Prior knowledge:
The protein has helices spanning 31-41, 48-55, 100-114, 129-137; strands at 13-17, 20-26, 60-67, 70-80, 83-90, 119-125, 141-151, 157-166. The protein is of the alpha+beta class. The protein has one domain (4-166): 3-Layer(aba) Sandwich (Aminopeptidase). Strands 1-2-3-4-5-6-8-7 form an 8-stranded mixed sheet. α1 (31-41) packs across α2 (48-55). The longest helix has 15 residues, at 100-114. The protein is globular. Bound molecules: coenzyme A. Coenzyme A is lined by residues 41-42, 89-91, 96-102, 124, 128-131, 133-134, 137.
Amino acid sequence: MTDPSDLSPTSKSGTQGVGVTIDGPLGPAHAAVIAALHEQCFDDPWAPTAVARLLSMSGSFALIACVERFPAGFLLCQAVAGEAEILTLGVPPRHRRSGLGRALLRRGLALAAAQDARRMVLEVATDNAAARALYTTCGFTTVGQRRRYYNAAGGASTDALILACALVPQSGDG
Ligand SMILES: CC(C)(COP(=O)(O)OP(=O)(O)OC[C@H]1O[C@@H](n2cnc3c(N)ncnc32)[C@H](O)[C@@H]1OP(=O)(O)O)[C@@H](O)C(=O)NCCC(=O)NCCS
């Protein structure tokens, strides 16, 4: 079970390393910068209006990682009725393998626990070795599978794994 109590879930900006901050929770006002980061990380870009719509939903929030104040990664999450979901997470290629993905994920887990989520879930492509390794090191385990969930180029499709991680409730009532 992940215990995020060593983090500061309510802080607006947490220092992770020299020149690195994790800013949030953030809302629709940050949709444009998040969409720009998303476009650098995924083949199917999300429009700023779509990101803003997601961030307008109940319980949703964003985090942005900055290196020397320059946006260098993001996470979108929604926590509703005791369960949270990572909607998307990305770090542009030039900033990868420096701990930003793990820092974003850990802060997201802490914020979801602070909203009394007891479990975090997400979907990841079976062939996404980097993300699967990240999630495993942060305590996620496989709880399900969706066949041919992601469409790939040339009409191929890829299965998705459903991963979950138990959270320590922060309210102390169970
Ligand atoms: C997955 C992703 C967010 C990881 O971000 P990152 O900032 O590079 O990750 P970190 O530096 O925090 O790495 C944390 C751990 O993840 C694992 N990991 C990250 N990249 C990896 C890679 N290319 N190969 C193997 N393991 C990897 C390692 O266990 C790593 O720990 P270590 O560096 O101590 O060995 C990034 O690769 C990315 O944006 N990918 C494209 C978008 C994506 O797939 N998002 C997830 C959708 S479910």
